[in-house]
Amino acid sequence: MPALKLSLPAGLAQGRLGQTWASLSRVPPLVWLSALLIAFTLWASIAPATLVAYDPLETDLANVLMPFTTEHWLGTDEIGRDLYSRLVHGARESFLIGLLAMLVAIVLALPLGFLGALAPRPVRHGVDRLIEILLGFPTLLVALLFVTLLGQDPLNVAIAVGIGSAPGYARLIRGQTLLVRNSAYVEAAVALGHTRAAILFRHIVPNAIRPLVPITGLGVGKAIVWSSSLSFLGLGVKPPSSEWGALLAAGKGQLLEAPWLLVVPGTAVVLVALSFSTLFHYLQARSEGA
Amino acid sequence: MSARQATISDVETSGKRQALLGAGHVLLGKLGQALLTLWATVTLLFVAQAVLPGDRATIYLNVLEGYSVTRTPEELAPINREFGFDRPLLVQYADYVGGVLQGDLGTALQSRRPVTDLILEQIGATALLAVSAIVLAWLIALAWTLATAGRHPALSRIGATVEALAAGMPHYWLGLLLLLAFAVHLDWFPVVGGDSWRGLWLPALTLAIPLAGFLGQAIRGEYEHALGQPHVLSSRARGTDEWRVRVVHALRPALIPGITLTGWALGALVSGAVIVENVFSRPGIGALLVSAVELKEFELISGIILIVSLVYVLITFLTDWLYTLVDPRVSFERKGEA
Question: What are the TM regions of this chain, as residue ranges (chain B) (predicted)?
Fold first, then answer.
């Protein structure tokens, strides 16, 4: 009997490890690829110098507007700066702007969404209408309005994009909170006579927030696209920076001579945004038990 | 998924309210909602302008002269008098609302021309682009759904993946690729679009492809669901032609989420249009907006946002009515029960 008792935990652990391995090997290759790409971008934002051979600002006037070569993997710009180095060094700014924008959006959306679902009737209706009204404003236009109000720098771009995308998340949070509020377990808690605060913080808030984790991940990719769109218009981060949108803006003048100056950073944005959506869609599906 | 959830809950709440109001008052109620939305928009825009950091007259002078310095009261006084910046906020607000009601959205600071005129000059080009994009998007989405949905599982999966990819494309990237491929390399279309008809194709396509992806995602699920419904089975049993089954019996009910999404996508379409116009150097609201942001022309930006929400409100109204044409079960009176 004692022997059995001793071997049980070990067997359990093995079983768990095996299970983990089995579930990991079921992960589709595309999801792996996305995770890899996000990991690479993260690495580039933390330690860009370890990934590149050139300084992002080093000019090489002998190799101006070069297409892809073995020396310059992704070509050079009009004063011979290595595009791959600039891209890797720009990752941090693009990534941080996306992350911060998402944070701003969620911080604004949480109170709106909760109020829209839980507040007393008149407040709830007011907030509902407000969310609907704000949803009618195009994200880019609201972001542009706030960039104008706050001034064009990376921090303000993040804030503006966050404000612009907040209404969509507010609606999502509101829907999720309503779903939880009307659920059987909340009804049970009410019937058991739990206090309102206990029900709110032990049942409603955690269950309404949990699905937000994958959605936040999806949103970072979208926020990166929006902020690079602002920069592309020349209204966000300005060209000396190598933020990806700023690279696009800088490349606009060379569309005919050196299209890669636009296509490469654009593709980087697309790939990173796609990776975020692929990875977090997968996680979302997993967490919902699909 | 979130869009569909929201629609269902919207239908439910409006259903309850409509039952209370009765059939005749529904239109009136919707009109009231629309007016409330517009009033709130005007107020929000005014507040945004009023709380903007910095003195407006100073910003105006700095923008006009191209450099930032501290201004003396003597310099600011005439500007404040001309634009009324020195009056109490409540008076300015009443003035703003009154102006909007008469179609006066203020004066652009730099060109000193009415904002309404500036917008009306450009909105035609953008509207043409948006409408062409919506038509193209529907054509693409319908063709794609009919070709790939409810067929072999592998084909269906490929169809859904392509839709997801298309829906996630940033407009500037798609526009650039189309421009490089079809205007620069193949030379089928002009590189600088201008306002010619031939120049409309690529920008419209750039806007249409992501929208078609969204529409396709919305239509596909409902369409495949409808194909498994008893009424489809019975019409197949009656020997109805396969195309007729698919188009009339399965596709029609699947259009509803697509229609909802089209109204809802208008905002995304305007955002996209601003970028697409920039990529293809097309005239329109986009160019106006970019210059307005560069010059800090709040009146102009607010005016554009206001016009866009007016259109949005109208479109929402229109889509509510379109439902009744597509799905006979839905009517203004008993939308909630459908």
Answer: 34-52, 123-149, 170-188, 200-219, 254-280, 300-326
Q: How much is the average pLDDT of B128-154?
A: 85
pLDDT band (50, 70, 90) for residue B194? low
Nearest partner of B315 among B168, B175, B130, judged by Cα: B130
Distances in Å between the alpha carbon of B308 and those of A106, B171, B202, B313, B315?
A: 25, 19, 23, 9, 10
Do B195 and B166 belong together in one domain?
yes
Tell whether B196 and B71 lie within a shared domain: no
Assigned domain for A264 exists: yes
Cβ of A263 within 8 Å of Cβ of B44? The answer is no
List CB contacts (< 8 A) between A139 and chain B. 267-268, 271
> Is B97 in the same domain as B158?
no
pLDDT digits (tens, 9 = 90+) for B91-133: 888 888 888 888 887 777 777 788 888 888 888 888 888 889 9
Residue A149 has its nearest CB partner, among B52, B173, B316, at B52
Q: Which of A145, A232, A274 sits opposite B48 (nearest CB)?
A: A145
Poorest-confidence range of A119-128, A143-152, B314-323?
B314-323
Is residue A126 one of the residues assigned to a domain? Answer: yes
Same domain assignment for residues B141 and B199: yes
Structural domain containing residue A264: 97-289
Among residues B75, B101, B127, which one ends one of the domains?
Answer: B101
Chain B touched by A155 (CB under 8 Å): no
Task: Please give the mean pLDDT across all residues of chain A.
Answer: 81
> Is position B108 within any domain?
no
Are B188 and B315 in the same domain?
A: yes
- A109 vs A27, A74, A169, A174, CA distance in Å? 32, 39, 6, 9
The runs of H, that is alpha helices, within chain A are 2-25, 29-46, 83-118, 121-135, 139-150, 154-181, 184-191, 196-198, 205-209, 212-232, 244-251, 260-287
Q: Which of B173, B267, B293 sits opposite A138 (nearest CB)?
A: B267
Q: Domain check: are B159 and B305 in the same one?
A: yes
The domain that holds B132 is classified in CATH as 1.10.3720.10
Q: Which of A127, A131, A132, A141 to substitute to test the interface with B, most B CBs within 10 Å?
A: A141
Listed residue (B302, B289, B308, B300) closest to B111, CA to CA: B300
Q: Is residue A110 part of a domain?
A: yes
Q: Which residues of A touch B33 (CB under 8 A)?
A: 129
pLDDT at residue number B226 = 76
Determine the Cα–Cα distance for residues B45 and B39; give it in Å rounded to an integer. 10
- Is the torsion defined by CA of B222, B227, B233, B234 positive or negative? positive
Please indicate if any CB of chain B lies within 8 Å of the CB of A203: no
Residue B145 lies in a domain: yes
Q: Is A4 inside any structural domain?
A: no
CB contact under 8 A, B275 and A233: yes
Could you tell me if B313 lies within 8 Å of chain A, comparing CB atoms?
yes
Contact A229 B48 (CB under 8 A): no
Residues of chain A contacting residue B190, judged by C-beta atoms under 8 Å apart: none
Question: Is B31 found in the same domain as B128?
Answer: no
Q: Which domain holds residue B13?
A: 3-101
- Within a domain: residue B189? yes
Asked whether residue B226 is assigned to any structural domain, the reply reads: yes
